[in-house]
Amino acid sequence: MNTLQVNNLTKTYPNGVTALNGINLEITNGMFGLLGANGAGKSSLMRTIASLQEPTSGSIYFNGTDVIREPNEVRKQLGYLPQEFGVYPKISAEKLLNHLAILKGIVDKKERKTQVTALLQQVNLYQHRKKSVYTFSGGMRQRFGIAQALLANPKLIIVDEPTAGLDPEESNRFLNLLSEIGENVIVILSTHIVEDVRNLCPKMAILSNGEIIAEGNPTDLVAGIEGKIWTRIVPKSDIELYKALFHVISTKLVSGETQIRVLSENKPETGFEMIVPNLEDFYFATLFNQTLERA
Ligand SMILES: Nc1ncnc2c1ncn2[C@@H]1O[C@H](COP(=O)(O)OP(=O)(O)OP(=O)(O)O)[C@@H](O)[C@H]1O
């Protein structure tokens, strides 16, 4: 069993922005979803765990090794797919992956060839191996990204917003691939897409303003708000009124009509119907409660 321990982690950038504020997490094998809005601090946390930047304070241990003091030890066991994979040189996918395998420390040529071929097949890019990654679609690039993250059999895999910008089919293919990676490693998936976490992750946390505001199993977390989510269709012009009167956690257009969802222990007023909550409701309700606390 692999274990990642994050203790009281803070990160304040030189411009004074505190992106992480006292993060505590313990993550073991399987897929862990880190949900948060843009700017919540997800990339800051991912980059710090991946030892690409140092925290201001706090500690991170992977299987007992201090990530901050011994980054090279952890890097050997790490696969990282950053939010922006960067500029691709105009060489074939196969050559680029082979080159990245050298950087990852796979020195044996035969071993490298075996791994590169197997990974290109696993991510379904083998037939495109002679093409430059430069010419790949967004989905193909992300699949290439996961192939490079899987080089040298990492025990800790971090993928930062991997489906942003992908069309639904590409996104689906990518996520299926991710779920196949296995239960014997830690996979941290950072995203603002609630659906991705619901479909893939048995454990999750919500990050907001640099703090973890909820953590657990998605089904258990959703069970905690059962009986408390109410909905009704309202005229668009009345939304502000409803927001003033009730705890409106989300508004959505459903077939051209505006549906609001309200968090309430009791039926807010006639016309509301109780609904079976989903993870999105939990996410919005948690963010809503946090905003109330901060106000
Ligand atoms: N290198 C940096 N220097 C200064 N501020 C930064 C830096 N990187 C991030 N920030 C700030 O830290 C906060 C958290 O950013 P971060 O990128 O970690 O969030 P995020 O949840 O990954 O959001 P996004 O999905 O938009 O990248 C933001 O206010 C951001 O502007």
Automatic annotation (TrEMBL):
GO terms for molecular function: ATP binding; ATP hydrolysis activity. Coiled coil: none annotated. Keywords: ATP-binding, Nucleotide-binding, Transport. InterPro entries: AAA+_ATPase, ABC_transporter-like_ATP-bd, ABC_transporter-like_CS, P-loop_NTPase. The keyword Transport applies. The keyword Transport applies. Gene3D superfamilies: P-loop containing nucleotide triphosphate hydrolases. Residues 4-234 form the ABC transporter domain. PANTHER family: ABC TRANSPORTER, ATP-BINDING PROTEIN (PTHR43335). Belongs to the ABC transporter superfamily. This is ABC transporter ATP-binding protein. It comes from Cerina litoralis. The lineage of its organism: Bacteria, Pseudomonadati, Bacteroidota, Flavobacteriia, Flavobacteriales.
